[in-house]
Each structure stands twice: as C-alpha cells, then as structure tokens.
Amino acid sequence: MHLDHEQLALLALGEDIDRSDADAHLARCTTCTRELHELQGVVETARYGPSADQLLEPPPRVWDRIVADLEDEAAAPARARPHRWWVHRRSMLLASVAAGLIGVLVGGLGVSLNERPEVIARTALTSLPGKAGTGSATLQRLDGGLAVHLDVSGLPAGGGYYQVWLLDPAAQKLISLGNLTSTGTGTLPLPPGLNPARYPVVDVSLEPRDGNPAHSSNSFLRGRLPT
User: Which of 148, 153, 127, 123 is CA-nearest to residue 219?
Assistant: First the structure.
C-alpha cells in the first residue's frame, strides 16, 4: 500500500497533520518519497514565484515527445498496461501537480506585471545552545503588506511542529506568524498594522501537538532583524 494522493498533497503543502505513520512509510518507500519531492518542488515554485527563465515556452520537441508517449500507451496491449489503481493514482497526483503548475503560471504573470518583493531587512538564524539548525529570515514588502520569508535547514524531525514567532527585544511580548513547512521554507505575512521595529526578533520554536497556542519555551533558532 502507498500513501494516498490527499496525504501526499498535504505533506507537500506542509499542513499541520499527524505524519508519524507517513514518515515511517516514506522511510521505506522510494516511490512515495519521489512523488512527495516532486510535489514539494511544485509547491515551492508556486509559493515563492518563478524566475523569468522558468516561464520559457518549451521547445516543440517536448510536446512531440508527450504526444508520442501518449500514443504508445494507448496502443499498448492490455496485458502490458499498468494496473487500474496505479493509473488512478498517477492521474490524481498529476492533477495535483497540474494545479500547482497553473498557480505557477498565474503567479508568474503577477510577478511580471508587478514589482518583485522589496527586501527591507535580513538576518541569519542561529541555533540556541544545545539545539540544531541554521537558516535566514528576510523581511519583505509584498503586495502592499509585510512578510517574513524563512529558509531553514538542519532542524530535527519529529516530536511536534515548528512555529515562527516575532518577539520584542526583551523577549517578553510575542506574535505568532504561523507554522514552518516541512521543507524549511516559507513566507509568512505579518498582521496588518504590526510595526516590525517593535518585534524585531525572529524565533523558531518546536511546539507539541497539545492544542495549546502558547509558546512552548523550546526555541531552536533565533535572529534579530535590523531596524
């Protein structure tokens, strides 16, 4: 048995779901792992905007090859065709990928018509004593609002989920921005009207799945944006 397409799509999107069984399956299934990586690539490109060269029209030979492959599959004898469950599975995954690609194209058009995000400040994220991980955080002006873009790696897996916060300089007040995706990257908008100069510290904490929205006091990464 493989993971179904809904699970793979949720994992690729970095949704807050119980992934213990999924992680165990991915550790031994190269097929699902490969499909998850492909979907994650689509999600990342769709979310953070393609560069201009990613929107180039494919050469005619690419479409010729696709048509040829489809004709070959249609002409194949029944005994050589994949089982129906695999055809359905691939169709659903390809539909997810196609939906992501549509988002890429639409997002790409938006990027071409509007200015790219304005970088206001940037900081390195360093691990706290006894913790692992590294990364960076960038404060951006995006679509008339502010957002923090994170690029993080090296965080240990399991035991909960990672949440992103903004803290005041004394670490007495805090604002939750949302959860970090399983890929370690993400762009999280600031609440409207929030002055980032009052909350310049970016904090990444490991949160248990206990339903408590408060900070766990288990921070892994931290960095201060220049203001």
Answer: 127
User: Which two structure tokens, joined as six digits, stand for 80?
Assistant: 């050589």
Closest C-alpha to 23, from 225, 200, 182, 187: 182
Q: What is the pLDDT of residues 7-36, one digit of tens each?
A: 788 887 776 667 777 778 887 888 878 787
Crossing angle of the two packed helices 5-13 and 84-113, in degrees rounded to 10? 30
Three state DSSP letters for 44-65: HHHHHCCCHHHHCCCCHHHHHH
Counting beta carbons within 10 angstroms of the beta carbon of residue 192, is it exposed (0 to 12), middle (13 to 18) or buried (19 or more)? Answer: exposed
Instruction: Say what the pTM is.
Output: 0.52
User: Minimum mean pLDDT among 92-101, 119-128, 163-172, 198-207: which range?
Assistant: 92-101
Q: How far apart are CA 213 and CA 160, in angstroms?
A: 13
By the 8 A CB rule, do 49 and 43 touch? no
- Secondary structure of residue 155 in the 3-state scheme: coil
Q: Are 192 and 146 in contact (CB under 8 A)?
A: no
Domains and CATH numbers, the chain: 5-113 (no CATH), 118-224 (2.60.40)
CA distance 207 to 179: 10
Query: Which two structure tokens, joined as six digits, stand for 186?
Result: 């993400």
* Cβ atoms 151, 131 nearer than 8 A: no
Over the stretch 165-206, which tens digit does the pLDDT of each residue have?
999 999 899 999 999 888 888 899 999 999 999 999 999 999
